[in-house]
Amino acid sequence: MSNNDGCAISRSNEAKEMGLKMGTPYFAMQAEQEQGLIWWRSSNYTLYQDMMRRITGIVKDTFPDQEIYSIDECYCDLSTFKHHNLEQIAIELRAKILQYTGVPVCIGIGVSKTLSKIANKIAKKHHKDTGVFFMDTQEKIDASLKITEIDDVWGIGPRYTIKLIKAGVNTAHDFTLLPEDYVLKLMTIQGRRTYRELKGERCIPMEYERPAKEGISTGRSFGKMETELAPIEEALAFYVANAALKLRAQNSVCARLFVYVQTSLFAVVNQKYCAEIDIKLPVATGDTAKLIKEALKGLHQIYKKGFRYQKVGVELRDLKPDTQVQASLFDPEESGKQQKLQSALKIIDQLNSSYGKDTVRYGAMGYGKKWAMRQEFLSRKYTTRIEDVIIVKAY
Amino acid sequence: MKELLLYQRGESEILIPLYQERIHAGFESPAADYEEARIDLNAYVTKYPHATFYARVIGDCMTESGIFPEDLLVVDKSLIPTNGDIVVGILDNEFILRSYFKSGNRVYLMPDNISYKPITCNSSTQFEIWGVVPYTILDQKRRIHDRLDRLEQFLR
């Protein structure tokens, strides 16, 4: 289910066979759920993240040059494996992941990232037995591109899809038949990059290290609409604490805060309200307490009574490496305080990572978390909490 | 710019700090050069952390193997069971704990407690091996009352 248990997001093969579509709302599935025909679960990101860590770890043991692209995808550079039987290695790796984690994955191998993504889709659809598709000949590439709709190509968004279909381009193969300067004119340099990738040229490099984020934003819809200031303050403090954790994890500090509140997009016109505020901090910091204080000050300026708010969010901006903050270098007393603060923050982060999020929290974050997203059908955190491990029957 | 490798990070979660807090200008401990990573139980019981899961036991059908209710199991999914191994299997959509025993063409899921019966695996049983249990963690504190009873009987 999506955040807030609103609709179906990811479906098992059995559910797909029943005709359950992505985005099917909660109420439309309720009858089947009550009859015991379908089961659903809230999004358990903690578990998914750990399973991903296991899977990418297993992949890395076979293919060490790895870029983790999303929660369920990674790219590997196989150029050093030229003289190996890649297909066989991939089939064995896939079987190993299935045995070690229970998760069936697919592996697509192609010359470029864009082609490998198409190969992966084909593996998923047409090679269910091995879960692997190796796009190693021009014939295979052509056949694959012919059955790939243009909007399924990585890098071609909905806007260009419309343009391309108008120009008679329905498949990835059609796209590769266009003249290159036409593609450049129609879709700029990004489109040409995709075009060249489909033609077997490696244009999108591997990104082994994620570049430090330029801004860190967190914000989610509330479980229900909120009208009072207090729950919105609590939620904001939570998001700031989350964002500050990420900030410190990449050894950055931030110099600006951006806070916004909004009512539902579907609210009628005179009940619609959204506001934002950009706050410049006197000194760049990674200290959660200072950031919460400033964010709340900002919230007080934009919050108006009388609206039903759906969401609050924060973005930390103007990030810089924490080594660049030297404002207090010549003030020994202040610098001693800073050092103490840094070690305190480090310990808080360690405690929260060992004993569960929010073990050490700031007062502004409150206790109830009544505003939090609905996760009524949450599965357990089987692999990260000792009290949540699987139960095995010995009787 | 090449990064300087200060220590090799292994699979274990435990790292030794190079410098704890600040360095005092005094006589440096002569033991500092001999510092080694503390013994790590994780490394001892998990051969392959990505394939290792933990599980809690309910029931007493494996007590002869020293596995008691509430004990914690280390389950390694990378291992293939050999005869006599303790395994976690899935039977009728539930995790069960038994010993794996193959005799001829037959596969049995054996309890290790005479008050339970073996389960014979045939084509009609929906069974699959989920993982092998190489280690278990027994809570000796919880067993203290049973032990006291035995000790008293022994002296009697």
Throw out a few tags for this protein.
heterodimer, A: 395 residues, alpha+beta, four-stranded antiparallel sheet, B: 156 residues, mainly beta, Umud Fragment, subunit A, seven-stranded antiparallel sheet, 2 helices, 30% strand, flat, disordered N terminus
| Total of DSSP H or I helical runs spanning 4+ residues of chain B | 2
- Percent helix range of chain B: 10-25%
With strands numbered from the N-terminus, the spatial order across the biggest sheet of chain A is 5-8-6-7
| Overall spatial form of chain B | flat
Question: Spans of chain B of 5+ residues with little confidence (pLDDT < 50)?
Answer: 1-10
Kindly report the name of the CATH homologous superfamily of chain B. Umud Fragment, subunit A
Q: What's the CATH C level of chain B?
A: Mainly Beta
Ends apart, CA distance between termini of chain A: 34 Å
What class, by secondary structure content of chain A?
alpha+beta
Shape of chain A from CA axes? Answer: globular
Q: How many angstroms does the end-to-end distance of chain B come to?
A: 75 Å
- Strand proportion of chain B, as a percent range, falls in 25-35%
Cα Rg of chain A? 25 Å
SS element count, helices of chain A: 12
* Number of E strands of chain B: 7
Question: Which class best fits the helix and strand makeup of chain B?
Answer: mainly beta
Strand/helix succession of chain A: HHHEEHEHEHHHHEHEEHEHE
Assembly classification: heterodimer
What's the total count of β strands of chain A?
A: 9
Overview of the molecule:
The complex is a heterodimer of chains A (395) and B (156). By secondary structure, chain A is an alpha+beta fold. Helices cover 42% and strands 17% of the residues of chain A. Chain A has helices at residues 13-17, 26-34, 45-62, 86-101, 113-126, 138-146, 158-166, 172-177, 180-198, 229-249, 288-302, 332-355, and strands at residues 66-70, 73-76, 107-109, 132-134, 216-226, 252-263, 274-285, 309-321, 390-393. In chain A, the strands form 3 sheets. In chain A, strands 5-8-6-7 form a 4-stranded antiparallel sheet, with helices on one face. The two termini of chain A are 34 Å apart. The relative contact order of chain A is 0.10. Chain B is flat, with a radius of gyration of 23 Å. Chain B is 11% helix and 30% strand. By secondary structure, chain B is mainly beta. Chain B has one domain (6-11, 47-155): Umud Fragment, subunit A. The A-B interface holds A 53-55, 57-58, 99-102, 343, 382-383, 386, 389-395 and B 21, 48-51, 53-62, 67, 69, 72-73, 77-78, 88, 94-98, 111, 116, 130. Strand 9 (390-393) of chain A pairs parallel with strand 1 (52-58) of chain B.
